[in-house]
Fold this protein.
Amino acid sequence: SSLSVVMAYLIIIKLVSGWNVSNLAKQIGGIVGALFLSYSSTFWSNAVETEVYGGAMFVMLLIVYLTLLWKERKTTPAGERLLILIGYLALLSIGIHMTVLIIMPALFLWVIWEDREKLKDIRFWIAGIILSLVIFSLVPFLVGLFLGLALSVIGMVLTRYDRRWVLVFALLLAGFLGYSVQAYIPIRSSQNPAIDENDPRGWKRFKYFLERKQYGQTSMAARAMTRRGSWANQFGAHERMGFWGFFREQYMSSKLWYVPVLLGLYGIIQQIRKRKREG
């Protein structure tokens, strides 16, 4: 969680780098913004307990920061290496918590908006779709992954290693290597530890575990679209559920909640004015 705060600071500094203000003002803004994150109630609660969310938040912010770095290097080989690293970290992060994947659709859209070559490249779209299958079902993800790898190898050979085919191959391979962290689960389960939920040592139980069937038979994506609470409760101030209730209570005191909200809105407006695409 401490590293997450550092990443938040670096992201803010990167986002305001194009603003026509002094370096001191940028540094102060970065520090203030990072400390707002640090002392918000949900983040603080996760930071002081042995839970997955601190690690997940760090990887999320790291991926966002790497995407900002990619934007500056998008036409260079270094930029493509950053995309490969992002793909690796996204699939690796499932070993912490699948929450990290919530940022990936937005970042994918930003990449194809910033780089028109990738917007028109069906190969890049296919790679993104294959990697996203991991949130729906295990078998289609693995089948798509290996078919994509085979197809990209053929494409590389036929085109004498065209960099676009190489990028697709590298993205899929990096995603597979990141996802391979899940192999730890059956290995550890086979040693019969004291806590061995679902006993996922065989393929059937391992598949059940990876698809999170212990939380219900529908996929995570399907469950997200059919939540049990009403829309009013989900977005209102309903206890332990409502978004507005959590959002309102984040900073210091409910009597001052509007201060960081107004500062945040002002920052968004200024970012749109000064650096429209990032805003």
Notes: The longest helix spans residues 138-158. The chain has a mean pLDDT of 91. The CA atoms of residues 4 and 43 lie 10 Å apart. The chain is about 65% helix and 0% strand.
